[in-house]
Every structure is written in structure tokens, then in C-alpha cells.
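Predict structure. Input: Sulfite oxidase, 199 residues.
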Amino acid sequence: MTAEGCRRDDGRELPPGQRATRTWRASHYGRVPTLDAERWTLRVGGETQDGGVRVFTWDSLAELPGAEVEADLHCVDRHSVLGLRWGGVRMRDVLALAPPAPGAEHVLLAAVRGYAAGVHLDELRHPDALLAHSVDGEPLTPEHGWPARVVLPHLYGFKGPKWVVEITYHRQPQQGWWESHGYHPRGRVAREERFAHQG
Ligand SMILES: Nc1nc2c(c(=O)[nH]1)N[C@H]1C(S)=C(S)[C@@H](COP(=O)(O)O)O[C@H]1N2
Ligand SMILES: [Mo]
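Output follows.
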């Protein structure tokens, strides 16, 4: 199965309020950035254990064990893309290279051009949480996040920035783009946490 082809619709139950789409159309605000993997870096800073900032290149992350996760992508606007096979490295392995300070339990995941998402640290420690660079065995296309995107399958898609470049640890919950427009601070799909007013 290819990323752009027909998605499987095998009658499995979707999470509450979601509909499966047959084609995978990219969804984001603004133009697609074209990033060079050779020059791309991921900064990890904020409330780190040693107070420092770590900057990872693509090559330095490629030394981590590779991971694959098959998962559906659920957009908070109610469309779901089924059966994507993400490849990359585990987020928890990346974080272990630049651990947070005790008590810094909140994270802002930032992409180029201002997009960001606030998540709880626990979500990034989930075994299925990836820093992904491929999907269905192919490198991510520019519109789907090349060279790297955060994939948190148990959360709505807005929690996973494409073109991610920075991770910062904080002591307080952080608001990214969607959170500052009324969307849920946690965004867990199984609990249908779409909007902040739900509590
Ligand atoms: N940088 C960036 N990442 C982003 C977004 C965005 O607008 N900018 N949109 C998010 C939302 S709302 C969803 S549902 C998914 C969509 O991913 P896709 O375009 O690969 O389907 O990307 C997420 N990551
Ligand atoms: Mo979305």
C-alpha cells in the first residue's frame, strides 16, 4: 500500500467522531517549506537536566535504534487516515540524550514558521511516539513533513508538528497554535479531547 493510494477501510472501529478518508491529503497552514536534511537540526532546550541546549543533526539521530509504528492519523477536524507505517526513532530515545530537569513535565514542540504544539512529557515517552522520517517505507514527502515530524498516534494530529526543529521543556503547560485557538491541552483521541472547554 502506498501513502497516496487507497487507504484500507476494513470496517475497523474508528475513534468517536472520526471518518476515514480514502486519500491522504496533507493538511496544514501556509506553504510547504523545503528543508535540507543535511542542514536540518533539532534543538532540545528549556528546562533540561543540566541547563544546557543540545543540537542534534540528522546523522546523530540516525545512530539511535530505528523504530516502526503502524498507526492511524486522526485530525481533530474529524478526518482519519488509516494504516500509516511510520519509520524513525523513538521520541523517548531522543529525550534520553537530553533529559528534562525534574519537575519539567511539559513540552513545546516547534516547527519552522511558528507552528507549535504543547504536550505532556508522558505522551513523548509513549513507546509509539516517534520522530519520524519515513512513511510506508518511503522518505516523508515535503508536504508530509520532510525531514522530520513528530508522530503521536494516540493524540490528535495537531499535536505532531511536521518540519519539527525544536523541543523545549517547561514546568507549566504550553500553548501552541491550536491550543491558543481553543483546542485541547492534551488531545487524546480515545477520550475525544478536542476542545479546551471540555476540561
Ligand atoms: N508544521 C506543521 N505541522 C503540522 C500542522 C501544521 O499546520 N504545521 N498541522 C497538523 C495537523 S492539524 C494535522 S491533522 C497533521 C496532518 O498531517 P498530514 O498533512 O501529513 O496529513 O499535521 C499536523 N502537523
Ligand atoms: Mo488536523
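Residues 27, 75-77, 157-158 surround molybdenum atom (ligand 2) (CB under 6 Å).
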